[in-house]
Amino acid sequence: MRSTRPSSTARREGSARRRISPVLAAVALASALVLTATACGSGDADADARASDSAAAEGDGKITIPDGLADRLKEHGIDLDNWKNGAWKNWDKDDWLREAEDFVNPIIEDLWNPERMREADELDQGVDDSDLSGDQGVTDPTPEPVDAEAVAPTYHDNAPTAGKVFFDSPEGTMVCSATVVQDPANPGKSNMVWTAGHCVHAGKGGGWFRNIAFVPSYNDSAMSAAESASATQEEVAPYGVWWGDWARTSDQWIEQGGATGGDGASHDFAVIHVTPENGDGKSLEETVGSALPVDFAAPAVQQVESITATGYPAAKPFDGETLYQCQDKPGRLSIAASDPTMYRIGCTMTGGSSGGGWVTTGADGEQALVSNTSIGPATSGWLAGPRLGDVAKGVYDSVSEKFAGQ
Prior knowledge:
17% of the residues lie in helices and 25% in strands. Mean pLDDT is 81; it is low at 1-57 and 124-136. The chain is built from eleven helices and 23 strands. The chain is globular. By secondary structure, it is an alpha+beta fold.
């Protein structure tokens, strides 16, 4: 964390970190600001070394090319053999694909093995104190902390839509949280996952992350860290590894989001379309047996009795192996008057929970996803997430329409 002269808001809220939820194998952050509580944090030197050694030994698996990807790879000058053998670790700005239409993600089979998933770390990014100075909008008093509660195993029975997103970034192997959501173009057969924008794209300072994959019901039986150290692939990922074959985030995140600021946090969301690394033809929704609808009506805070946030916090005192939830009545947080006001709840989840779904019960009595973890303070106690409106719906619809009827 770097220290700067605190603004009036920052003095009230405390320093914050951008929660990037790419966590080195074990730590996952939950927010775009990687605020200490929900953002991605940096792992220790040993974790970084393990991730580096692991990455150096990777790339031996067979590469799979989803339909339509070969031509796009050729357009970007990507040689598959070189990619598999480590070219994906070239993060030179000139070669880092950035624009919305540039997303490519060849499947490297067996890349995401239990050891590599376990070693994924959180990306600890400092945020200027002035990032929370936007009191031009409406900001309610800081909520009291709400202790995160462990979800009872098996996770598939009690939170079947939850899972982890793993990916590679210039800082190493990272992890976030995510949620299976419905696909209006393929009812009952969705392959769509909702997470934070900072879990798929670096924002204005970079481009798309690589080797993005989703693991539903990660560590389904809630093994301890010691137990998971010797776990099999089936125990860690009982419903398989699902690779992103397309992803979209908001233009605002791509243009404004960054590693050290609150810019873009109000639009810090993303949708990943996934395909199984090894599968039997079933969709993700059919495989896990559930998918949440997404509510883009952005209900006002006064209309929301409570929100439940779900994720895999990895920064201390958590270890990234256990699924947690917080439930609280939301308040409002304004980053800048020109941006939509965010939801904010009390919650002690830390880095690694970034991207995890926020769910509430609508007027129809049904649960729906209304936000995701984006930012939180350096000292855990609250989380904030974007309110979903027309921009989020545009991102969601573009992914659904791209795979309509498939």
